[in-house]
Amino acid sequence: MASTTIYKHKSAPYDHQRKLFQRTRDMKHYGLFWEQGVGKTKPVIDTAAYLFERGEIDGLLVVAPPGVERNWMTDEIPAHMPDRVMQKSTIMLWKTGGSHSKWHTAEFDRLVKADGLAILLISYNAFMTRIGKLATWRFLRRRSCLYVLDESDDIKTPKAKRTRSVIASAKYAPYRRIMTGTPADKPFDVYSQLRFLDQDIWRRRDMATFAAFKTHFAEWFTRAEAQALLGYDPGYDKLLRYKNLDELIVVIAEHTDRLLKDDVLDLPPKLFTKIWFDMTPKQKNLYNQLRDELEIELENGRVVDGNLAITRLLRLQQITCGYMVTDADEPVVLCDKTNPRLEATVAWLERLSHPAIVWARFRHDVDQLMDALGPRACRYDGKLSNDDCERSKLAFNAGEFQFFVGNPAKGARGLTLNAAKSVAYYSNTFKLTERLQSEDRPHRIGQDGVDHGEHGFGVLYGDVLAVGTVDMKIVSALRGKYNIAAMLNRDKLRAWI
Known about the structure:
This protein has helices at 15-24, 41-53, 68-80, 83-86, 102-113, 124-127, 130-142, 161-170, 190-197, 210-217, 223-230, 245-255, 261-264, 281-300, 306-320, 340-350, 363-373, 386-397, 408-411, 432-439, 471-479, 484-487, 490-496; strands at 29-34, 59-64, 89-93, 117-123, 145-150, 175-179, 218-221, 238-242, 256-259, 270-277, 356-359, 377-380, 403-406, 422-425, 450-451, 457-466. The protein contains 23 helices and 16 strands. The longest helix has 20 residues, at 281-300. The strands form three sheets. It has a seven-stranded parallel sheet, with helices on both faces. Strands 10, 11, 12, 13, 14, 15 and 16 form a seven-stranded mixed sheet that branches. Strands 7-8 form a two-stranded antiparallel ribbon. The radius of gyration is 24 Å and the shape is globular. It is an alpha/beta fold.
């Protein structure tokens, strides 16, 4: 039965945050599958403070993607943790680079032994180091914890070492929460996330293994059947169709809450436009040459699986970005002296009188954008340290820069960038989650929008596209909420090129 204890919030909750907190604050296990920007971190912090004041916990462990754990330290906890609890709290941000130092070891020892509420913030990557894993397990054994997985879809792969380690450690925490805005690209993705909350959740339903889970919720054309009927072993079971999804939906609903922004927030709309450019003659020749070579490969049956199709599509995209085709994911050789994609993007940005975000896939794209935009821009990608990325985020939100230039693989999750009123996609990755997450960095609580003239009032998203290329197919798939990596095969690649 829920407690009648009166809890005083530090920051006033929205109605949906208040209702969720009051309904779930005493629950041992629960998940927030709330869309990005709805504000799912606040009720979790309020739950931690409430449980601490009730004497139920004396520890809060948050595991998050790299960089996101810092947001808990700099933004979320200071904004939402009541001062009366903060005064009794000790917080540590785990730093992998300094984890072997005497200072770091001493700080962690103080945290584990501290009076009051001990808070440990650590990234998934740091958790998986030997010293990080030992530290978190020690923390879980010594403290009575609320254990939180931020962006819990990071453990959606059951066989991954990360997933197995995180789930194994969960049993030491009496209270657990998962939170993500993108819980599943496919039904199988919820298996591990719900197991973190309740390790016996599937066993009680006679699905003791992931194989049993997949068999219960899908029909397969197995390798053995292929061998018997077709005379060859394809090397994997082929998914035919999902089944029993109504049952799965009921299970998910019992343990989680799903909420969309349109259901609870009056945010300005997302507006979309296209920024077209023509490639240089040299680019066009290189593009057509590679496209013709791919058509020959397709005719000869050399492109037979999705991974190879993705690689070929990446090569075409690199040329439209101004690079020669290379064997590396990061291209290094420019096709021409000029880059029409860069020129079109900068021209579009120059017309803006408000802050904007620019997302770019390749590090060299970010380099060129930073050179072109000069002192008006800050960067946020893997080239910078986590500390420097944090400084870029804070400076942009403080109005010190007009443009935030980042890589979506680094910055698509966990950041609040609602100072931005426009977003340019210089180049897209093929991951739907990165597109959806990056779109929502500015489109969240606190966004008030601006008038974009002919486009209307709201937040404007511009996709930079090379005329007559795969760019349009890529954007259409992502805007249609298709995961390119999952959908692309030989036949689709043939249609795209």
